[in-house]
Write a structure and sequence with these properties.
The complex is a heterodimer of chains A (about 290) and B (about 325). Chain A is built from twelve helices and two strands; from the N terminus they run αααββααααααααα. Chain A has about 290 residues and is mainly α. Chain A has one domain: MetI-like (MetI-like fold, Orthogonal Bundle). In chain A, strands 1-2 form a two-stranded antiparallel sheet. In chain A, helix 4 runs antiparallel to helix 5 and helix 6 crosses helix 7. With about 325 residues, chain B is mostly helical. In chain B, the strands form two sheets. Chain B has a two-stranded antiparallel ribbon with strand order 1-4. In chain B, a hairpin with a 2-residue loop joins strand 2 and strand 3. In chain B, helix 6 packs antiparallel against helix 9. The relative contact order of chain B is 0.16. Classes of the chains: A mainly alpha (about 290), B mainly alpha (about 325). The interface between A and B is large, with 91 and 89 residues.
Chain lengths: ~290, ~325
């Protein structure tokens, strides 16, 4: 007992200094990251709240002033449209790569989804410009923007669906098969409902990503000072991230205020979705 | 069986999208590739030529008189800003991961990690806004002059003039913040999932807790760290909006000091498309497509490598979703 208690005292001073310095430095790293996070959030929230008012939310952009109603509507329509396009294909890809996970097609899909996540959004945006805006001649439009965003959301939805389905216990599948259900019944009647909260969380996270995207929309959606006119092609549409990028560069205080308000709306939305998603996933993890 | 076939076909949209992106960019930029040749990546001049004179035939392609498309300065800018970002992000991410995995109690770890990893969720353009409004004035007016005055006397790279704040170092700093959560999150997971018998063995041999971590636990996660670094690299190479807003958007200049303006391949596509559209032959737009194509190929290689490394090395661990 005595020998064990005495052991720490035998550690040389230099080793102890190295240890203490190491822990201190690692703590400093975490502190730096936290401070920067708080700094970013406080800049966005303090300036954003100062710029946000009823008029910003209810009127459309006029020159370098006015409001953001057109951009808010545009962001919702673009991201909503992207989800409508991406969810069926993304969920199908996720189901396939989870339920038939050892087939070579599933392995291919999983791998390419990981690669597609890493393709820079500007590359996807330029693809949208070349293929949709130019080649198909849609001009700057909702359809071109939404399809570009859909391609970006696709791998996120695929991977979260796959992970969600992998959490479903195989006993459940065995039970369903033994009751005589076919593959379709087992997947859509048993597995997908069991994994639904996690799948929906993934879809929401994909929505958050597409709401925050700028680069893929610049040359596919364009910008418009007016509300969406209901056309899918040939008419540009507004969105919030464009307002952040453009209006912060203008010399007018009214334009800068719009940029801050747009930044607050986008960041707030993205954070709320991420926090909600975390709560849902965390609760499921604990219950398990 | 029929159901499964249908599902396979619908799922096939995802691979198809990736192939379509590469194929469309390659086909569209083909005339530009032919015109530019290999010099595209070795010349450091991007000049649209005389857009108001009649186009001339060069190398079998119609081009504006005097047009040259070289992206060496973009490649240099991209590589340097990414390198700086990694140099900052690696120690910061490793340190944060160590503290989160080893010091922060389990109950708090989830939420503190979540808070720091929220950095990953913040849109690129918001980072750009923060960089443009707060970081550039701070660095340009306060930190860089001091840096140039002190470090700059010893290392010419940091020497005066310290510039306006737009430039290589600022871009690297902002980029590093965007990639640090990838490194921190992946490494923290790897550290937490290391078997605790490793640490106990090291402690039993008389190591201090930090030595056990530094000499035993951390080397065990080396492969994960390399994979995560590749992922971070891929993200930094293709980051657009934040770089666009803080890099100074240099054209045809190679940086000589760490404060000098630069541009990256991704940011250049955004900043140049408007002027490229003025080219009646369309060759400038196609050359931009060539940049996008090169960027796509680079990011596909980097990400494929990263995933393969992570896949092969720790197939038993939680898959990484970034």
């Amino acid at each position: 007992m005595n020998a064990i208690a005495a052991a720490p005292r035998q550690i040389r001073l230099s080793r102890r200094i190295v240890s203490i310095t190491g822990w201190a430095l690692s703590g400093l790293c975490l502190a730096v990251l936290s401070v920067l996070m708080v700094w970013i959030l406080s800049v966005v929230f303090v300036r954003g709240v100062g710029a946000l008012n009823f008029k910003v939310l209810t009127t459309i952009t006029q020159g370098s002033g006015g409001g953001l109603l057109n951009a808010i509507e545009g962001t919702l329509v673009l991201s909503g449209g992207a989800l409508l396009l991406a969810v069926p294909f993304g969920v199908a890809a996720g189901i396939y790569s989870a339920e038939y996970r050892f087939t070579s097609w599933a392995i291919t899909i999983r791998f390419l989804a990981d690669v597609l996540v890493g393709v820079p959004s500007i590359v996807i945006g330029y693809f949208g410009y070349v293929a949709l805006v130019q080649w198909l001649g849609w001009n700057f439009s909702l359809a071109a923007g939404a399809i570009s965003l859909a391609i970006i959301s696709l791998p996120y939805i695929c991977r979260t669906t796959e992970l969600a389905l992998r959490q479903v216990s195989n006993d459940l599948r065995d039970a369903a098969y033994s009751l005589g259900a076919n593959e379709r019944r087992v997947i859509f009647g048993v597995c997908v409902p069991a994994a639904l909260p996690a799948i929906l969380t993934g879809v929401l996270l994909a929505l958050a990503v597409s709401v925050g995207e700028t680069a893929p929309l610049l040359y596919t959606a364009g910008w418009s000072n007016f509300m969406w006119n209901g056309h899918l092609t040939h008419s540009p549409i507004a969105y919030l991230t464009y307002a952040i990028w453009t209006f912060i560069n203008e010399p007018f205080a009214s334009a800068n205020a719009l940029a801050y308000a747009a930044a607050l709306l986008v960041t707030g939305f993205v954070l709320i979705i991420n926090i909600l998603a975390r709560f849902v996933l965390e609760r499921r993890r604990i219950r398990r | 069986m029929k159901f499964r076939a249908w599902l396979a076909i619908i799922a096939g949209i995802l691979p198809l999208a990736l192939i379509a992106i590469v194929a469309f960019l390659a086909i569209y930029s083909w005339p530009a590739m032919h015109f530019n040749g290999f010099g595209f990546v070795t010349r450091d001049t991007w000049r649209l030529g005389n857009l108001y004179a009649n186009p001339v035939m060069m190398h079998g392609t119609e081009a504006p008189r005097g047009a040259t498309y070289g992206i060496l300065f973009l490649i240099v800018g991209t590589l340097l800003s990414t390198a700086i970002a990694l140099l900052i992000a690696l120690p910061l991410g490793v340190g944060a991961a160590i503290f989160l995995a080893e010091v922060v109690p389990d109950a708090l770890r989830t939420w503190i990690s979540f808070f720091v990893e929220l950095l990953m969720a913040i849109p690129s353009v918001v980072f750009g806004l923060w960089g443009y409004v707060v970081v550039i004035p701070f660095l340009g007016q306060h930190l860089y002059p001091v840096l140039a005055h002190t470090v700059g006397r010893v290392i010419p790279l940091f020497g005066e003039p310290s510039g306006s704040g737009y430039g290589l170092l600022t871009a690297g700093v902002v980029l590093s913040l965007m990639i640090v959560p990838i490194i921190a999150a992946t490494l923290r997971d790897a550290l937490v999932s290391q078997p605790s018998s490793l640490r106990e063995a090291a402690l039993g041999l008389g190591a201090t807790r930090f030595e056990a971590l530094w000499k035993v636990m951390l080397p065990g996660t080396r492969k994960t760290l390399i994979g995560a670094t590749f992922l971070a690299l891929g993200r930094a190479l293709g980051e657009t909006m934040a770089v666009l807003m803080v890099s100074g958007n240099a054209l045809n200049i190679l940086p000589h000091r760490i404060y000098d303006p630069i541009s990256t391949m991704a940011a250049f596509i955004v900043s140049q498309l408007d002027s490229a559209l003025q080219d009646p032959t369309g060759l400038a737009v196609r050359s931009l497509a060539e940049i996008a194509f090169v960027l796509a190929i680079i990011s596909i290689i980097v990400n494929a490598l990263a995933r393969l490394l992570l896949l092969v090395w720790n197939s038993n661990q939680r898959s990484v979703m970034v």
